[in-house]
Write a structure and sequence with these properties.
Blueprint: E1 5-9, H1 16-32, E2 37-41, H2 44-53, E3 60-63, H3 80-84, E4 89-92, H4 95-101, H5 105-117, E5 121-126, H6 130-134, H7 138-150, H8 155-160, E6 162-165, H9 179-198, H10 200-205, E7 207-210, H11 219-223, E8 230-233, H12 240-257
Parallel strand pairs: 1-2, 1-8, 2-3, 3-4, 4-5, 5-6, 6-7
Helix pairs in contact: 1-2, 1-12, 5-7, 7-9
Length: about 260
C-alpha cells in the first residue's frame, strides 16, 4: 500500500510574515491528519522560518527548485547543501521551470541525481501542454519525460522518489483533468514506463501524484483512482482551509480504499 502524499507548491507567493501566518493557521489541523504524508513547499526566503514552525510535527518541507552544484559562482541559485539543512523534498522540473527558465530533461535528470546524493527526495514533474494533448502526443511526450528524468537512477532510488503528473493545460486554469483520465495516464504511461525500465515491483512502489487545478471539490475524484497516490497542489495550498480539506479528504478516501 503506497502512502499518499499531498504537497503544497506555494510558487512565488507569500512574504516571510505571510508564510508564518499561513503555517500557523493550518499546522495543528494538518498535524492531526494521519494516513497521508504532508509536504509544504514555500519560497526559499521562508524555508528557515517555516522549518521552525514545523518542529515536532510530521509535516515535511520541500524546496521548489535546486541547482545541481554544491557551491560556486552561480548567482541566484540554491544548492542542495542549502536545502538539505531544512528540507526533505525538492520539486524538480515543474512545467513553469521548463517554460520560463529553460529547464530541459537533461537538467531535470542532473538535479534528481544530486538530490539523492544529498538525501533529498525529488518530486519530479512531467506533463504535456494543450497542443500536445490535442495532437494525441500525450503518451509519447510524458513517457519520454519520465524516462529521461530517471536515466541512470538505481531501482532503490526510483522506488523512493515521487513523480507528479501535471498536464500543463490544467495548471492554474480551473480546468482539471478527469479522475479516470489522469488515472489512465498515471497508470498506463508513467507507471508503465517505469515498469518497462525497472520492473513491475519498482513501478508499484513508486508514488505518483496528480497536479493541476486541484481543490477540495475535486480531490476525492482523483484520490478515488487506484493509480493516483496524492496531489501536487498549487493555488489551493495558499488557503489554509482548502489545503487542510484536500489533505483530510485524501486521507479519508484512501483509508476507505485500503
Amino acid at each position: 500500500m503506497r502512502t499518499p502524499i499531498i504537497a503544497g507548491n506555494w510558487k512565488m507567493h507569500k512574504t516571510v510574515a505571510e508564510a508564518f501566518a499561513l503555517v500557523e493557521e493550518m499546522r495543528d489541523d494538518l498535524a492531526q491528519i494521519q494516513g497521508v504524508e504532508k509536504v509544504l513547499c514555500p519560497p526559499f526566503t521562508a524555508l528557515y522560518y517555516v522549518s521552525g514552525l514545523l518542529q515536532g510535527t510530521d509535516i515535511q518541507l520541500g524546496g521548489q527548485n535546486m541547482y545541481w552544484e554544491d557551491q560556486g559562482a552561480f548567482t541566484g541559485e540554491i544548492s542542495p547543501l542549502m536545502l538539505k539543512e531544512l528540507c526533505q523534498y525538492v520539486i524538480i522540473g515543474h512545467s513553469e521551470r521548463r517554460q520560463y527558465f529553460g529547464e530541459v530533461d537533461e537538467t531535470v535528470n542532473r538535479k534528481a541525481k544530486v538530490a539523492f546524493q544529498h538525501g533529498l527526495t525529488p518530486i519530479i514533474c512531467v506533463g504535456e501542454n494543450l497542443e500536445q494533448n490535442e495532437a494525441g502526443l500525450t503518451e509519447e511526450w510524458v513517457s519520454g519525460q519520465a524516462a529521461a528524468a530517471l536515466d541512470g537512477l538505481t531501482s532503490e532510488q526510483v522506488k523512493t522518489l515521487v513523480i507528479a503528473y501535471e498536464p500543463i493545460w490544467a495548471i492554474g486554469t480551473g480546468k482539471p483533468a478527469t479522475g479516470p483520465g489522469a488515472n489512465a495516464i498515471i497508470g498506463q504511461v508513467v507507471r508503465g514506463t517505469v515498469s518497462s525500465l525497472y520492473g513491475e515491483q519498482v513501478a508499484q512502489a513508486l508514488r505518483i501524484q496528480y497536479g493541476g487545478s486541484v481543490k477540495p471539490e475535486n480531490i476525492v475524484e482523483f484520490m478515488s483512482q487506484p493509480e493516483i497516490d496524492g496531489a501536487l497542489v498549487g493555488g489551493a495550498s495558499l488557503v489554509a482551509d482548502k489545503f487542510i480539506a484536500i489533505t483530510r479528504y485524501s486521507a479519508e478516501t484512501k483509508a476507505i480504499q485500503g
